[in-house]
Amino acid sequence: MLALPELQRAFGAAILTGDAGALAHAIEGDGLPPAARLQIYRNHVLDSLTEVLKATYPVICRLVDERFFGYAADRYIRSHPPSGPCLFEYGETFPSFLEGFPPCRDLAYLPDVARLEWAASVALHADDLPALAVAALGEIPAVRLPGLRLRLHPSLSLHASPWPVDLIWRANQPDREPAGIVDLGAGSACLEVRRSGDDVVLRRLDAAAFTLRRALLEGGSLGDAAAASAVDSGVDFGAALFELFGEGMVVGFESSTSTQETT
After folding, report:
1. Which of 76, 133, 172, 193 is the most exposed place for a label (fewest CB within 10 A)?
2. Does position 17 have pLDDT exceeding 90, yes or no?
3. What's the alpha-carbon Rg for the chain, to the nearest Å?
4. DSSP character string of 142-202
């Protein structure tokens, strides 16, 4: 008789492989052979997880066709089963899976489009933290401002791609029928994804703004961000910083002597 943890592990493995051999004695068929009873649960699990992936990656599904997406999702689910109970958190590694999935090797832009879709899902479900007003910086002596580290809103992410993935994403939204044709040679994209109210906002940034925000998002200080963006002589660091506050993307900051957060 298997102990409960062993039984759970065996059941999970059987769901993924379809092999009920190790569990046959523990399955109450209720008129069905154990393997047939397990197959009912297996089909339900695989179908449910496929629908979760479709909901998170609708553009990918549209780009490759629903049947092919189902095939790719099945391969992914078998090798990357959920590790937690929240299904909206499932599928983070799907873009990397597509990058190494041989049938997708001729669709080099596909993983970056998937990363954009995952970022939109993360933004939609991120905690809704109140924004910090720019006036809070007045509490910090000017000499300490270069060492200040901002805490940015958890919905915010940045993405650089050699492909025009934002154009691909927009051309394949449900309200675009038929899907528009996108020139893959249209150039690279530096993108910001964040939530505004109940909506996910996706927009292009110029190189200087992207560099500045990436430095802050990666934990750099204001001094680090200013130095990183200084390569562009046309950047107005103060204006770019005020814009970030104005968008409600700053939720706190840390200095060498104090921590300030919204409540």
Report:
1. 133
2. no
3. 23
4. GGGGGG-EEEEPTT-EEEEESS-HHHHHHHTSTT-SSPPP--TTS--EEEEEEEETTEEEE
Q: For the whole prediction, is pTM greater than 0.90?
A: no
Q: How many CB atoms within 10 Å of residue 16?
A: 15
Task: Tell me what pLDDT residue 208 has.
Answer: 83
Distance in angstroms (rounded) separating the CA atoms of residues 82 and 203: 31
How many whole angstroms separate alpha carbon 133 and alpha carbon 91?
Answer: 35
**Average pLDDT of the chain?**
86
Residue 55, token pair as written in the block? 């909901």
Return the residue matching tokens 């092999």: 19
Share of the chain above pLDDT 70, in %: 80
**C-alpha span between 183 and 225 (Å, rounded):** 33
